[in-house]
Amino acid sequence: MPQSVVVTLPADCRMAAQAQLLQELLAALDAGAIELDGRAVERVDTAALQLLTLFKREVNARGGMLNWMGASEALDEAAGLLGLAKTLELPAAVPA
Fold this sequence. Notes:
Layout: E1 4-8, E2 12-13, H1 19-28, E3 33-38, E4 43-44, H2 46-61, E5 65-71, H3 73-81, H4 85-88
Parallel strand pairs: 1-3, 2-4, 3-5
């Protein structure tokens, strides 16, 4: 069974403030299974979504598994606006 690592995305998920997120994602690449928790994201920018897209591609290229524990409305909306929701395989939005 692959080793699982959880990476929790911060509330402020804009790249200008997220050198730590990049380091966490890079460290998680060696895990067999990765779970991203995007439920706390309040702000996200295009650069952060691009980073997540590249991260997902790299995980796939290494034969790893990437799953979402959940995604906030802000994350879901931003990814949808940029056409990345399907690429990132974000979980389906749950109606309130």
